[in-house]
Design a protein that fits this description.
The structure is a homodimer.
Chain A lengths: L2 H12 L6 H12 L4 E2 H10 L6 H14 L2 E5 L5 E5 L7 E5 L5 E4 L2 H13 L3 E12 L1 H9 L1
Parallel strand pairs in A: 4-6
Antiparallel strand pairs in A: 1-3, 2-3, 4-5
Helix pairs in contact in A: 2-4, 3-4
The first copy, chain A, binds a DNA duplex through helix 2 and helix 4.
Amino acid sequence: MKKEEALLKDHISKHNLKVTKERSAILRAFLDSERHITAEELYRNMREDGSSIGLATIYRTLNLFCESGLAEQRQFGDGQARYELTYNVKHHDHLICEECHRIIEFENQEIEALQEKVAQKNGFKIFSHKLELYGICASCSAKKTAS
Amino acid sequence: MKKEEALLKDHISKHNLKVTKERSAILRAFLDSERHITAEELYRNMREDGSSIGLATIYRTLNLFCESGLAEQRQFGDGQARYELTYNVKHHDHLICEECHRIIEFENQEIEALQEKVAQKNGFKIFSHKLELYGICASCSAKKTAS
DNA sequence: ATAATTTTGCGATTCATTATCATAATCGAT
DNA sequence: ATCGATTATGATAATGAATCGCAAAATTAT
């Protein structure tokens, strides 16, 4: 059993929930899918593979993944929530190309440390943060100057 | 005439738009209101003061403010867009208390510089960024440990 | 003032997400 | 394995924020 599956089952048993074939199937599909997927995209992917799981269940299950600590929900400003596996994944932030919508992950320990400093100065204890850099990537930039 | 009003009128005349009493009233109310206001809040504030301007017009006008460079729209993850005066206001980021929803603004030049460095390393040109620190403020923290 | 154009308010509409509810599946105890 | 209690599911309705369409009203250039 994969450790992601074990984590989910642990959360399920601790909260009097139930292991269902739908939840197992959605977890498998989620782990297989590209990062930063939306509920709709995951729904369509699974339908194409013959699944008959409903969209509401996808939403419910993705929320369950977030509650269990497997995943996190992100809002990149396009109106749809995106879900990302975060269990056993190093923390990182995002660079987003507004042209081709490519998402690059990065981590920067110096920035994290400075954030802590800012929080401390303001008497805050940080639980989470969101750092997103929006711009244009090298290849889109090249395409633009070419045209 | 305030410089905010002048900026808006400049944008209006450059785009063959029209100065209306609604737009002027919304601008006045917006400048008077607390920062990070939602369209609904601004709508309710104005209604309470006897305005009969419709909600759709508030939305349209706040978008106009953003297009004119007066304001910016922000998403703090509670599902409603918030609007903030940014014209003639120094750039800053946000600390958000998840307990009392207080929003503190801060600026940190070191972090900004590091962001540029990250972008450069990845071949990106940054247009904008979003840095939000979510946590609990000192007074809420004190209340919690007291109870 | 007139005509051309833009704006407004209202209600209808969209879109993502959640709630409802009847039926089905799961799980622990027998 | 079966039963009973509880939770999960799928379909659809409902929600809430934001936008759209349209007829009527307001604005601007002439």
